[in-house]
# Entry
Amino acid sequence: MNLPDVQSEPDHRGIAIDEVGISGIRYPISVYDVEHGKQETVATVSLSVALPAERKGSHLSRFVEFLETHGGEFSPETIASALGALRDRLDSPIARIEVQFPYFLRRYAPVSNASGLVDYDCAIRAALSPRRFELRIRARVPVTSVCPCSKAISDYGAHNQRGYLTIDAKPQTAATNRPEIWFDDLIEVGEGAGSSPIYPLLKREDERHVTMSGYDQPVFVEDMVRNVANRLRSDERVEAFSVEAVNDESIHNHGAFARLSWPPDLNGGHPW
Amino acid sequence: MNLPDVQSEPDHRGIAIDEVGISGIRYPISVYDVEHGKQETVATVSLSVALPAERKGSHLSRFVEFLETHGGEFSPETIASALGALRDRLDSPIARIEVQFPYFLRRYAPVSNASGLVDYDCAIRAALSPRRFELRIRARVPVTSVCPCSKAISDYGAHNQRGYLTIDAKPQTAATNRPEIWFDDLIEVGEGAGSSPIYPLLKREDERHVTMSGYDQPVFVEDMVRNVANRLRSDERVEAFSVEAVNDESIHNHGAFARLSWPPDLNGGHPW
Amino acid sequence: MNLPDVQSEPDHRGIAIDEVGISGIRYPISVYDVEHGKQETVATVSLSVALPAERKGSHLSRFVEFLETHGGEFSPETIASALGALRDRLDSPIARIEVQFPYFLRRYAPVSNASGLVDYDCAIRAALSPRRFELRIRARVPVTSVCPCSKAISDYGAHNQRGYLTIDAKPQTAATNRPEIWFDDLIEVGEGAGSSPIYPLLKREDERHVTMSGYDQPVFVEDMVRNVANRLRSDERVEAFSVEAVNDESIHNHGAFARLSWPPDLNGGHPW
Amino acid sequence: MNLPDVQSEPDHRGIAIDEVGISGIRYPISVYDVEHGKQETVATVSLSVALPAERKGSHLSRFVEFLETHGGEFSPETIASALGALRDRLDSPIARIEVQFPYFLRRYAPVSNASGLVDYDCAIRAALSPRRFELRIRARVPVTSVCPCSKAISDYGAHNQRGYLTIDAKPQTAATNRPEIWFDDLIEVGEGAGSSPIYPLLKREDERHVTMSGYDQPVFVEDMVRNVANRLRSDERVEAFSVEAVNDESIHNHGAFARLSWPPDLNGGHPW
# Structure
């Protein structure tokens, strides 16, 4: 049976499309993991290619075929080559991929050493064009934050809450198309930027330690993004980054946030 | 033009359907408000009717017509009569409605009296059958909770966080199909059950007050649901209720929760 | 260091709590899988126990310890025994668990046989009391639905859309505390209840087949829940079930839905 | 009582912060509406200012005071002046605001003229610096899309689904800091770019019309973004725009999407 190939017909509007693809596809993947080599998780994936002005459409089933063939393995070594394969499969000069997933690390309580897993929302976003390979890795890191103002103005106590540091890094990939920095590094930087890391499992002696050490190091959202920036701006594995801190304020029904990009945008730093 | 009416055809599987309707429809509504008489907000609405075994389908466009005609005004007086109109319009013995919306109340800081609005997720769920009128009103109330254990075991400080109390009440409506209790009442009960209410706007003197008064009244999630139950079990305007407390734990990446129903379910209280 | 155990103190309000526990904890788990024995996925977990009136609080860290020890393996054989262990660990007569996760099945295109994975939102909910073991398994199944009315009244075409069938089954577990029915069965029932199953990967010949076979079998949401009920009411492995169908209507900005429980609730079938 | 002002203390890390503020605050607002002058809705608001390197923190309570004072009225005339007031209140050179809300328009069925409201997710994002005023307005428009491939390869029928066109426009505001284009215009462009607009209320004669006219105008996601681009690239009220189309594919469990920016980005058009 000879079925027409509508997507391959010409288009006459003269408008190239930056991205055509599939989104919101959930898939079991494995991700490189510094401690174990790899870990199994579940991702939400978007895949796209650029579409030239003269082509009517893209063959979307090939994106799913790509995902099946590629097998869902993501590591520093495989990202650029996967994009090359996607570009070839879809016959396009530019391919892009975005993979979001929970990434799990074992965390140990500060006194008892009792341990459990913490989940971090992470993402890989990458693009490959004839001219360059672009990569971003992102981690969202939960922390405890204790309010410096509340502590300073009160005779006892201080409001605190869960906060989140989202670090989006553009790794140095110059020579090899391979990042030297990974999620574990970003998470460690984020966990050091609040009043205290959060933990999955705390016994009473741990809870005492976490309560007092958090109270000893109060931070505003402003401090949290500066703490991250202070670490990453001198890290040669990172070419650029942005960081956002959000506190789910325990005394309000809204969040407090701070955000910065590095290197600073001379035009005022706004994303649009 | 004479178009076939497929929905009115007979069905032969012998299976009655509890609910057929529309869901996820956003609509501007007005809700009765104790202070101002009414307030404007935006709701997500579900409307349904029971469908007898012998009828193939329901005419869904009539639900939207009902919403247009009814005008989106919700007060203690109008809920039962709206259900009656929906039942008539759809020619069904049983009609149900579920309306979820943010409800806004002005809240005043405890020292400076500075004020702003707090948003509470509220819901009305109601059903009308030939035998009875069923009503539930629900409010989700943000509070601050300070951990009693953390306070007791630490030399200074105590972890705290935003918590939510969700109170779902079945009001007494015996004589009149009209509840004597409303969202403002449930919210006031919820705000009294934590370590401190949350506030939209706090000046420094207020933040000092809130920090210290919260520290003076630490509560577990267990205490929060018991505090609500203690108030509502003796309130004659409430026939039954359930309450859930969830703390977005500031030292963990998961929540702590407690839940109870009143009167207690002798079989163990589980919803399924 | 001798730290006070606040949770073990007595409470004098005389209010027992149905559930105290932790919620929203993400964890890598493995689930029994008919084809491969098991599959790796990521779950969101809630664990709880009943708390007697005279006890102030529950020791929440023990829930995380339980999860670590238990190892996150879920199969028909292990659910009841896991609940027994949780009950012992928390020293409570009643324990409950709720586990939600994407479950993946390979699906084959109807003509080309090209295959990929489909993700189904599934859940296990279970409770163990001294008197009984309660279990529910739930699967949310995407389908294509073609509107019978639109087809009947139009000279050509028919609006269609993605719909979801959510089947919540109470398996027969009488003798063994072990269900004889699993997610694969519920999913297969759901996929047969729409106009067509959805597929991850369709080549042109498949898309032609799916388009025409869907058009040949139009269904309302009412038909979809009746199709499921018709299959399950005679399935001896199921003691009771509820089913909901929701269509993300392609011609509206709201959903159409139908819902029923089996055996029928003589009081009108409303959950509250 | 003389309470310390921690936020006003100096910071020595030498890191300026692009944005500090509050986020996730829900508030009743009124928005300019071409037909009625204004409409009441509920927004989620973020407000922020830039923080110089030498200042430790921002006074977040002033953002809520600003919202209270400003009163939540948004129209083409008021956006720039509101930002000026926010800048003054927070003593910062740069202020930003982001307001997301459902915007309601009455829509009339094509044959019967029966009408109801459609909800569109809309947003205003604006920034004011000493050098310039930046404004974006965004509307998310639901449409019906019928697949051209499915229609061409099948003897009858064609898969279709709900799709969403998200148009993000940078209006010309050169002389007056006032946009000449508003949400109603973007929505009208979006509704013309699919196979058919969606409607809140359709009688049988309308459903026949919508089914057949949609079948007569099949579109890919690629066509939808090109249709929008074709209209807006010649619209002098728009300086730049981006458009994204997403189809909730009725035959798959993932979405198809296309995205473009105008003027085209010579570096390959990727946002990062």
